[in-house]
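Example 155, ligand fe (ii) ion.
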Amino acid sequence: MAELLVWRDQWLLHIDPMDEDHKEMVRLLNRLADNVKHPTDTDKNHPLIDHQDISVHEIVLIRFDALITHIRKHFAREEEFMSSISYPDFLEHKREHTVQMSYFTSLRCTFSNGCANNLDQEVLHEIKMWFLDHVFGEDQEYANFFRESALSKDK
Ligand SMILES: [Fe+2]
Ligand SMILES: [Fe+2]
């Protein structure tokens, strides 16, 4: 089955912990997309699903929570990194993280309140486009700054 997003090495920042985080984000987003696309499937690998009668809505919520939790940790790691290299646009980038996280949490809140249709293909597409903007746009900027400052120290 076609995945929502297939990792491409052109997305690499060449900063290992951040690249690993982004790869994991792709993996978690694809798992979420699988459950949204195939609502009758159950995932026998998940410990909760083997032992409990769990609804599709709950499975999607577990997947979505896993993605949000990962993104939250990733944002914190990036912010620590940007601060450690004295990135000049740190505050602006951090603000974008805050705005994005509040979007995810409000989406989660609406979805968990029983509006199952809120997490559909359109939302998945939005998250996918956000991911591409994130790795291609704002993240490349701090990675470029990091490379340039490393090069100027070498001179
Ligand atoms: Fe990132
Ligand atoms: Fe970021």
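Summary: The domain at 13-36+54-154 is CATH 1.20.120.50 (Four Helix Bundle (Hemerythrin (Met), subunit A)).
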